[in-house]
Design goal:
41% of the residues lie in helices and 19% in strands. It is an alpha+beta fold. It has one domain: Transcriptional coactivator/pterin dehydratase (Gyrase A, domain 2), CATH 3.30.1360. Strands 1, 2, 3, 4 and 5 form a five-stranded antiparallel sheet that branches. The longest helix has 18 residues. It catalyses: (4aS,6R)-4a-hydroxy-L-erythro-5,6,7,8-tetrahydrobiopterin = (6R)-L-erythro-6,7-dihydrobiopterin + H2O. GO terms for molecular function: 4-alpha-hydroxytetrahydrobiopterin dehydratase activity. Keywords: Lyase. Belongs to the pterin-4-alpha-carbinolamine dehydratase family.
């Protein structure tokens, strides 16, 4: 059975993920990261790679995609909160993101390239 992280485990394991751009969300007991890719195709390719990883690990993220932006959360539904599965999966996901920009301020509105493309008359 998968168990939630203890407070001591959180204190030890979450700061390095924070340095990598993952933010803890206490309301949903999850970690979240937002990537901005150069195009929809790059974002979709990243999501495809993450999907294959998720199947291999038997652990699936909650995510949202808008054009070139991928907003991803990790939490373990089996224990209703953060577990070691989330902590192990986060750096593996990071390794799949390539040179995507990270939106570190998660309170900031997420803006995608589609607005720019539309303003240029290409969307």
């Amino acid at each position: 059975m998968v168990e939630k992280l203890t407070q001591a485990e959180r204190d030890a394991l979450l700061p390095p993920l924070g340095e990598a751009g993952w933010g803890a969300d206490p309301e949903t007991d999850s970690i979240r990261k937002i990537w901005k890719f150069r195009s929809f195709s790059e974002a979709w390719g990243f999501m495809s790679r993450v999907a294959l990883l998720a199947e291999k690990m038997g652990h699936h993220p909650d995510w949202r995609n808008v054009y070139n932006v991928v907003d991803l959360r990790l939490t373990t539904h089996a224990c209703d909160g953060l577990s070691r599965l989330d902590i192990e999966m986060a750096p593996k996901i990071d390794a799949l993101a390539g040179g995507a920009e990270i939106q570190r301020d998660q309170t900031q509105q997420i803006e995608c390239l589609c607005k720019l493309e539309h303003a240029r008359g290409r969307g």
